[in-house]
Amino acid sequence: MQNIQAVYRLNGKNYLKWSQVVQTFLKTKGKVSHILGAEPEKGDPKFEAWDEEDSMVMAWLWNSMTLKISDTCMFLSTAKDIWDSIWQTYSKVKDVAQVYDIKTKTTLTKQGNSSVTEYANALQSLWQELDHYRCIAMKCSDDAATLKKIME
Fold it and tell me: Which of 44, 76, 80, 92 lies at a 20 to 30 A Cα distance from 120?
């Protein structure tokens, strides 16, 4: 992607942050529907313009990944196919090991020589990442019980 720093290039370990950066970038360009929505039919008059835009989004996606990762999805047909393939491979939603790792990092994070603000920011970042991995299906009558189980 044109303006995304190399630190956000998908490397296999930073999917969560990478996906957030990519979605935000695509929203600013008005192209997020290419990774989330459906494509028009090939006979549709809008298909040709959509296809050209989709090719641009595909190139942005490939350029936002390491070469090894982009090679794995180089021959997929649409930006959505690329997005879904990468999600399937690198998203770790409901990954118990990942949740444990984040909880461990949270426990081991110390203020040390950091300012209070830097320390709080480090913890907040870990908590936000942990929230991503917690898929909570809430139902009105069961909310308290569900939350209690999660907190245990």
Answer: 92
- Helix 79-90 × helix 47-63 angle, to 10°: 40
Looking at 91, 116, 138, the residue that finishes a domain is 91
Q: What does residue 10 show for φ and ψ, rounded to 5 degrees?
A: -60, 125
Total number of domains in the chain: 2
Its pTM surpasses 0.90: no
φ/ψ (deg, to 5) at 8? -100, 15
* One domain, residues 18 and 85: yes
- Measured between alpha carbons, how far is residue 149 from residues 47, 142, 145 in Å? 48, 11, 6
Q: Which residue, 91, 106, 133, sits at the end of a domain?
A: 91
pLDDT digits over 27-67, tens only?
999 999 999 988 898 899 999 999 999 999 999 999 999 99
The token pair that represents 98 in the structure block:
């990942």
Q: Do residue 70 and residue 112 come from a single domain? A: no
Q: Domain range for residue 139? A: 96-151
CA dihedral (19, 20, 23, 24) in degrees, to 10, reads -150
